[in-house]
Design goal:
Blueprint lengths: L1 E10 L2 E7 L1 H6 L5 E5 L7 E9 L4 E7 L3 H7 L6 E2 L1 E6 L11 E6 L3 H13 L4 E7 L8 H6 L3 E6 L6 E2 L2 H10 L6 E5 L2 H11 L6 E4 L15 E4 L2 E4 H4 L2 E3 L5 H8 L3 H15 L13
Parallel strand pairs: 8-9, 8-12, 9-10, 10-11, 12-13
Antiparallel strand pairs: 1-2, 1-6, 2-5, 3-4, 3-7, 4-5, 13-16, 14-15
Length: 288
Amino acid sequence: MFIIRKKRDLTPVTKLFVVDAPLVAKKAQPGQFVIVRIAPSGERIPLTIADADAKAGTVTIVIQEVGKTSRQMGLLKEGDGILDFVGPLGRPAPLTDKGPVVLVGGGFGVAPIYPIAKALRAKGVKVISIIGARSQDLLILEAEMASVSDELLVATDDGTKGHKGFVTEVLKQLIDSGRDIELVIAIGPMVMMRAVGKTTEPYKLKTLVSVDPIMVDGTGMCGACRLTVGGKVKFACVDGPIFDAHQVDFDEANRRGKMYATEQKLAVDRFEKAHHSGPCACGCGGGH
């Protein structure tokens, strides 16, 4: 069991966990992920590493409660254990020595952007971060991002904080201002990452995205996470998860991401019913 040392509610549906996993913490690098399973009958889900402390032996992950398993995990408390915590997996983010680098985090994607910003700053690279959410109350890790960025720009869809509109609008303003940008890295919803790629492509500005499709084993054996990049089949778990935004076939990635939408809804409905009708029946070992 991997014990949860700290839990923090970032938003009503976004939770941060600091997990005791010394072997993973020792090897973890920005951009990598872990595969987590919380119960013997549960599914395996990929979660990007949001931070790692090799000295303390802990790994930080952030979940957004969308499907059944993420909702189930959101109920875990400090002191609870996670059955499987496998990693670090995937290729680390390429950390350039030249800046400035613009990092774009959308919603839940701010969490995996944080360790990249932290590592770049440690190398002396100038970091400009753009973070966004639908509204101010859904922004996460703003203070943490400010601490590892030379500049932090905020956008909210409803204008409750920072620029009213999308992160791509802030990015375009930044590019059009004449800044000499070396690289853009964007992590967030698929639609956001696609829009970032479309924004930077006319400028021929190198742009990377972290694609997190359906995964099962996370080691390239099952083929569930395949996607097309530059006309070639790639596996996000072993070839990525970070790819050239201008080469990813986002249409295909979106279709594959929605393949099990019906099954996901049924699983969520069953889970919600179980948790509102008496003792826990989800297999997590508790009565929530």
